[in-house]
């Protein structure tokens, strides 16, 4: 199970990094669509990059994984809320929904490690 969790951690981290680094122009448009400030966007982006980094570090230090997985999952719940709020189509909601599912899996795996 550890191997699957590590793969999930990499998938979440790489996805977040790709979106927030290489597709930042899309993020700017979305946050404007949601009516959120530039400060909020910066705070969310920094939090996601930090949490993604911790998820990668958690491959070697499993004790780090639970909190970042839960917090990243909460950010994905917030993303779902804002997609719903502006009535985005499922094609725009699906990526954060998949990442939410991966975060739940990672957190559950981390709980098994802690126990």
UniProtKB/TrEMBL annotation:
<dbReference type="InterPro" id="IPR032808">
    <property type="entry name" value="DoxX"/>
</dbReference>
<dbReference type="GO" id="GO:0016020">
    <property type="term" value="C:membrane"/>
</dbReference>
<keyword id="KW-1133">Transmembrane helix</keyword>
<keyword id="KW-0812">Transmembrane</keyword>
<feature type="transmembrane region" description="Helical">
    <location>
        <begin position="6"/>
        <end position="22"/>
    </location>
</feature>
<feature type="transmembrane region" description="Helical">
    <location>
        <begin position="96"/>
        <end position="114"/>
    </location>
</feature>
<feature type="transmembrane region" description="Helical">
    <location>
        <begin position="66"/>
        <end position="84"/>
    </location>
</feature>
<keyword id="KW-0472">Membrane</keyword>
<protein>
    <recommendedName>
        <fullName>DoxX family protein</fullName>
    </recommendedName>
</protein>
<dbReference type="Pfam" id="PF13564">
    <property type="entry name" value="DoxX_2"/>
</dbReference>
């Amino acid at each position: 199970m550890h191997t699957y969790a590590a793969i999930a951690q990499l998938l979440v981290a790489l996805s977040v990094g790709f979106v927030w680094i290489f597709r930042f122009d899309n993020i700017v448009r979305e946050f404007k669509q949601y009516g959120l400030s530039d400060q909020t966007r910066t705070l969310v982006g920094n939090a996601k990059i930090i949490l993604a980094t911790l998820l990668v570090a958690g491959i070697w230090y499993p004790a780090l994984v639970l909190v970042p997985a839960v917090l990243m999952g909460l950010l994905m719940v917030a993303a779902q809320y804002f997609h719903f709020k502006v009535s985005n189509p499922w094609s725009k909601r699906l990526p954060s929904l998949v990442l939410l599912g991966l975060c739940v899996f990672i957190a559950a795996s981390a709980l098994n490690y802690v126990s």
